[in-house]
Specification:
6-stranded mixed beta sheet; globular; SgcJ/EcaC family oxidoreductase; NTF2-like_dom_sf; DUF4440
């Protein structure tokens, strides 16, 4: 049985969310490819080290909740996901963003190869 595109994105993003909510930057980074392009709310980085540094600097107690809005299969080993994400903080209002990800199969795992946050409004 093959996974649907939505199931693939959900599996990857569930692992990402679990690590974000546990404030475990290294585990967050392990969900990305070695050469991932990462664009959060600050200047972009390339690779897992930049992802880990970004999440190490986030507020302890921050949590993420997401909703998958769309998925598209770009190639046999590549899936695009478009999500709405709410980042909740213990000391300020929730930040709602749009998130585009490209996940790529690397060996027997699906990993995030591109991560792009945007805020509208």
């Amino acid at each position: 049985m093959t996974s649907t595109d939505t199931e693939i994105v959900r599996r990857v993003m569930d692992q990402w969310r679990s690590a974000v909510n546990a404030h475990d930057p290294e585990r967050v980074a392990s969900n990305f490819t070695d050469d991932a392009i990462f664009q959060g709310a600050r200047p972009y980085s390339v690779g897992r080290e930049g992802v880990a540094a970004y999440y190490a600097a986030t507020t302890v107690g921050m949590s993420a909740a997401y909703e998958i809005r769309e998925t598209r299969r770009l190639a046999d080993d590549v899936v695009l996901g478009y999500l709405g994400v709410d980042f909740a903080f213990p000391d300020r209002p929730t930040l709602s963003v749009n998130l585009g990800v490209i996940v790529r199969r690397v060996g027997d795992r699906w990993l995030i190869a591109h991560y792009q946050v945007s805020q509208l409004g």
